[in-house]
Amino acid sequence: MSVRRPFIAGPTPAQFWLQECSSAFRLLIATSWLAPDSWRAHQEDAIRQAVAGGPDWQEYLALVDRHRTPALSWAALTRTPGINVPAAVRGELQRRDRACRLAALHRTTALAEVIRNFNRAEIPVIPLKGPLLSLELYGDTGIRQSWDLDVLVTEEDYPRATKRLEDMGWRTIESDRFLSFLTPQQSAAVWQHAHHVGYVHPRNGFLELHWSILSHQPEQTAGCWARSVHSTWSGATFRRMDSIDQTLYLCEHGSEHAWFRAKWLGDLARLYAIEYVDWNAADARTRAAIQERPLLLALRLLNEVYALPLPFYDSEPIANLPPLLIRHTTRRLQRFKETAMVPSFSFLWKKLCEIRFDRALRPHKTWRQSLREATYRADDFALVRLPDKFFWAYAPLRPFLWIVRVLRRFSPHLGDSKQPSA
From CA 276, how far away is CA 13, in angstroms rounded? Predict the structure, then answer.
């Protein structure tokens, strides 16, 4: 295990942006994870400082909802002595905590059923995030709020997995139903650019069936399978990613979404505090794959957001990350809006910023690759059905299809059923 650099009390120069945020936001950050005993005093001090600033409690409740930390925030507040939380706010947090835990129990049961069903068909499966990550990090399946279930199967097993899900009553969400009617070239494009298909169940909510780890290349997903270990839980057998792959997956997932939810950073803060991974070994694996920046960005954010010391003796690569990465993620963390926007200059500027962020995060990509990924959507093939001999025409049509997709999202009577946000 790598040795930490000494912790210095008080905000580092990099944390000045956080000190300028509202007391409610700083309290949200302080309660977006649950520190183990070794770091509990550190977390409780941050909570007391934020409460002493006189937070707007309604703003705090809204932030808890937006960042999806109801049970975590309630647990962190209730165990911190010497703070005064208004009775009405305590009641609201208790209600949110109960709802979070009830939903987690329901999803945990649904996940166990899916895994056991796959076991009967001898389909290997890796659960991603969700209740099992909550159990692994906190020893409690109900403390992390999960909106849906995510499971990974191999490309070879994907057709059988879809059949098993359908037999259990799961149905592809409306926006993904066209995937059953793709031409060979369209199908190949989906496998290249996408990494999951969404399902919905009348009782069990949403599930995403993955065949790839986010934007990783096939060989990297294969590496996750090769390094995974057999585990059992609730009468089900599954594969669990090794500690480094799990950490890198969480870093990749958070970075893909520009870390707009504090609960993702809270997972990494907990992972850091329980000494879950050897950070130097994780860094070596990312450098071998030329994908080190998501990990370095995550560590930089842990330092700036939670005042956790950097785990490397050589912190220069973290300190020298492009400023764009820090600006974009801290702004999204503070001010992300989930409402759709109509095509406009501001919307186009936002998309351009996202492409620039992706280029800074993954500098090995070309602008052409980034633009193609930003404009590509599998549901282009549902909007316009072209035979394979005219497949080339999707490229020039992409800007127009993108506008149609945005309009359909903005206008409920035009859009399809939505998937849950990340």
Answer: 27
Instruction: For residue 219, report the phi and psi dihedrals to the nearest 5 degrees.
Output: -65, -30
| Continuous segment of H or E residues that includes residue 367 | helix 367-375
- Report how far apart, in Å, the C-alpha atoms of 418 and of each of 65, 175, 375, 406 are: 19, 7, 19, 12
Tell me what pLDDT residue 176 has: 66
Looking up tokens 């808890």 gives 64
pTM, entire model: 0.87
- The closest of 104, 130, 131, 138 to 33, measured between CA atoms, is 138
Residue whose token pair is 């409610």: 24
Look-up of token digits 């835990």: 101
What does the block give as tokens for 96? 């949110």
- Provide, rounded to the nearest whole percent, the portion of the chain with pLDDT above 90: 60
pLDDT of residue 71: 97
- Predicted confidence (pLDDT) at residue 301 exceeds the cutoff of 60: yes
pLDDT(149) > 60: yes
Mean pLDDT of 115-144: 96
- Cα–Cα distance for residue pair 48/33, rounded to 1 Å: 15
Going across the sheet that includes 171-172, the strands are 126-128, 149-152, 205-210, 196-201, 171-172
Q: What is the mean pLDDT of residues 403-414?
A: 64
pLDDT band, residue 3 (cuts 50/70/90):
very low
Secondary structure class of 1 (helix, strand, coil):
coil
CB-CB contact of 267 with 250 (8 Å): yes
Angle, CA of 241, 247 and 249, to the nearest 5°: 75
| Secondary structure class of 229 (helix, strand, coil) | strand
